[in-house]
Amino acid sequence: MSIHVDGVSKRFGDFVALDDVSVDLPTGQLTALLGPSGGGKSTLLRIIAGLETADTGTVTIEGREATHLPPQKRNVGFVFQHYAAFKHMSVAKNVAFGLEIRHRPKTEVKKRVAELLELVHLDQFAHRLPSQLSGGQRQRMALARALAVEPSVLLLDEPFGALDAKVRKELREWLRRLHDEVHVTSVFVTHDQEEALEVADEIVVINEGRVEQVGTPDQLYDAPATDFVMGFLGPVTRLGGAQVRPHDIEVSTDPGQPGAVPGRVVRLLRVGFEVRLWVETAPSEEPVSVTVTRAHQRQLALGEGSAVWLSPTSDATRVDAVV
């Protein structure tokens, strides 16, 4: 394993940020630390980087005990949400900075910077200042700067959090392609479930300072270990005493469906190609949320007031609801 975290705990006064966390982050993979704000994911990343000190526990990086090493001795690259660029330096000088303070030969620095700027598609902007770049371009510059010193581990703390939705999507697709090219062990923090599911090889779900579950995106989405993981990795609703995803509910207008729950559509909302239904199954319960395609909604002629029967699909992900 590239990074081994064993029994790490961290408190800030009375607040428990991490509570006896142990996790292995595989070599060469892109791992997401996913969880709600205040759950402990950024604290864990900063402890791995050496920017915070754990109260208890150990951190091993590439087989080397790193718990008490300063950040500059851990051979990690760190990318912050807000770029932390040197405003008075050109893009090329920003990328070269880490190499220059290590007193690398000028020819080596020049070659490495040129390679990295080409890799992140910024070679034509080498002489611009960071203020002359877009937000997405500045973040690509920050990634190039972190990669310049050839770190064994690349750590990214909500790297796209300051960007708008369209640029975020473009950059996370780009990050996935970049990782497949350079193969550096990467760990990124995010609270965006779609981002983690789309980009990561493995996801560590962290909540209230504890690891809820570790697995591939498919494992976590299809076989959540807890109701928290299921609810955090996508919308859920309650049907027949269990939590189920809205798109895993079959809708029928045929009252003869065995085991189906009868109900009535009380609200309908179209969002692009999806149609979201809220179905009242009992006056005392919250309406069941159901997602169908526009074509299916038209086929069944569903509208507000329609009588329907609901049942989970045969392959639906279900977690028994806690009453």
From TrEMBL:
GO terms for cellular component: ATP-binding cassette (ABC) transporter complex. Its EC number is 7.6.2.9. Keywords: ATP-binding, Cell membrane, Membrane, Nucleotide-binding, Sulfate transport, Translocase, Transport. Gene3D superfamilies: P-loop containing nucleotide triphosphate hydrolases. GO terms for molecular function: ABC-type quaternary ammonium compound transporting activity; ABC-type sulfate transporter activity; ATP binding; ATP hydrolysis activity. Residues 3-233 form the ABC transporter domain. Pfam families: ABC_tran (PF00005), TOBE_3 (PF12857). The keyword Iron does not apply. The keyword Cell membrane applies. NCBIfam families: 3a0106s01. This is ABC-type quaternary amine transporter. It comes from Marmoricola endophyticus. The lineage of its organism: Bacteria, Bacillati, Actinomycetota, Actinomycetes, Propionibacteriales.
